[in-house]
Each structure stands twice: as C-alpha cells, then as structure tokens.
Amino acid sequence: MTMIGCQDYRDAMACLGAAVNIVTTDGAEGRAGFTASAVCSVTDDPPTLLVCLNRSSSAHASVLGNGVICVNVLSADHEALSRLFGSGVPADQRFGAGVWSTLETGAPVLADCTAAFDCRISEVANVGTHDVLFCSVVALKRSNLADNLIYFNRRYHVVRASQQDPNHCVPLMEKRR
Ligand SMILES: NC(=O)c1ccc[n+]([C@@H]2O[C@H](COP(=O)([O-])OP(=O)(O)OC[C@H]3O[C@@H](n4cnc5c(N)ncnc54)[C@H](O)[C@@H]3O)[C@@H](O)[C@H]2O)c1
Ligand SMILES: Cc1cc2c(cc1C)N(C[C@H](O)[C@H](O)[C@H](O)COP(=O)(O)O)c1[nH]c(=O)[nH]c(=O)c1N2
C-alpha cells in the first residue's frame, strides 16, 4: 500500500478551492471562534452541515462544551477578519474586529456575513487530528451579497455573482483581485 505523506496531501488539498467561514460559539464554556474552510452541507432534511475542527484548536473546548456553533460565511470584505480568526491572537481581539449579534443558540453571528447557519451540534466523530462536528441548523440568516471569499492555492480570492444573473457565478480567475 502506498503511504501518502502529510505534505503531499496538503499540497494536493491546496488545489481544492473552498469557501471561507468564521465558526463561532458562546455559552457556559466561553466565547470562541476560528476560521474554517472544512465546512460542507450534509443533508437538507433535516438541515445538517459538518465542520472539521482540529482538537488542538484554542476553540475546541468551548465549541464542544457549549454544543452550539454559528457558521458565518465570509464575503469579499472579510479577508482581514479571516486572517485574525486563523491566527493565534486571543478571542477578545478576534471578536473586537467585527460586529456581532445572535440568532437562536447564542453563538455570535457576524453582522455583514454572506450567510449564517446557527446550529446545535448533534454528533461528533473523531478522525485523526480532527473532530467532525455534525450540526443541526436551527436558524438562518442570508444576505443579498453576491460574492464569496475563497481560499485556493494558499491565497485568498473573491468570486462574484454576475450583475445580470445573481444566481450565476462567473469563473474565479476572471474576477480575481
Ligand atoms: N482543515 C483544516 O484544519 C485546515 C484547513 C485549511 C487551513 N488550515 C490551517 O491553515 C494553515 C495554512 O493553510 P494553507 O492552506 O495556507 O497551507 P497548508 O499547506 O498548511 O495546507 C494546504 C491545505 O491542506 C489542508 N490542511 C492543512 N492543514 C490541515 C490539517 N491540519 N488537517 C486537515 N487538512 C489540512 C487544507 O485543505 C489546506 O488548505 C494550515 O497549516 C492549517 O493550520 C487548516
Ligand atoms: C483559510 C483557513 C482555513 C482554515 C484554518 C485557517 C485558515 C487560515 N484553520 C485553522 C484555524 O483557523 C486556526 O488554527 C486557529 O484559528 C488558530 O489557532 P488557535 O485558535 O490559536 O488554536 C482551520 N482549523 C480547523 O480546525 N478547521 C478548518 O477547517 C480550518 N480551516
């Protein structure tokens, strides 16, 4: 059997463009948040998404202890905020750079995010270094913003919906800034 090294795996995963999100939590175990690209939809019935969280993350204890998260989908203006939530700075400094509200669970909702998925964690699977969080979506917020922040090839990019048809996204490279 061929053994794939971590670096080869990461180099290949860097070819997989992904939306960038800030995943937040709040509750008895404290407020925390981290930048996450490992987020995807699982099923629409019941509405369920998954988030992969490194167990070494500073947010891990709060996320698992509170049992709630909000997935805040980032837009073109959020690159600096994404860098902050992906760095080692304290939680107060991270949250101080944004404006937050709440929906149903009390997890922080970013004021000007593209979409927010407020969730209760329903199942957790341990896989290697990460916990895979299966999350029931209990409330939603959706803006009319027509762009997304994307992480691809170890850099940030922006994808914008076309002016003519807001449901049609033009290719990433044509709109790269
Ligand atoms: N799923 C994750 O946990 C994840 C995803 C992206 C970035 N990151 C973090 O951001 C740093 C910078 O990432 P980069 O893309 O600029 O360069 P990188 O070479 O470290 O990572 C390349 C790609 O590999 C994957 N990856 C990286 N670390 C991972 C991990 N611990 N577990 C699972 N997949 C992982 C991601 O898809 C990432 O975009 C990483 O070192 C990591 O700490 C973590
Ligand atoms: C673009 C991008 C994407 C991700 C990350 C980073 C960046 C820059 N990070 C890492 C995570 O944000 C980072 O480890 C923490 O926020 C900083 O570490 P501490 O909070 O100090 O532990 C990350 N971590 C994680 O557990 N799951 C993920 O999906 C991602 N995705």
Automatic annotation (TrEMBL):
InterPro entries, A to Z: Flavin_Rdtase-like_dom, NADH-dep_flavin_reductase, RutF, Split_barrel_FMN-bd
Catalyses: FMNH2 + NAD(+) = FMN + NADH + 2 H(+)
Output the Pfam families linked to this UniProt entry: Flavin_Reduct
Flavin reductase like domain sequence ranges: 13-158
Q: Which EC number(s) does UniProt give?
A: 1.5.1.42
**Function summary:** Catalyzes the reduction of FMN to FMNH2 which is used to reduce pyrimidine by RutA via the Rut pathway.
State the name under which the record lists this protein. FMN reductase (NADH) RutF
Organism in which the protein naturally occurs: Bradyrhizobium commune
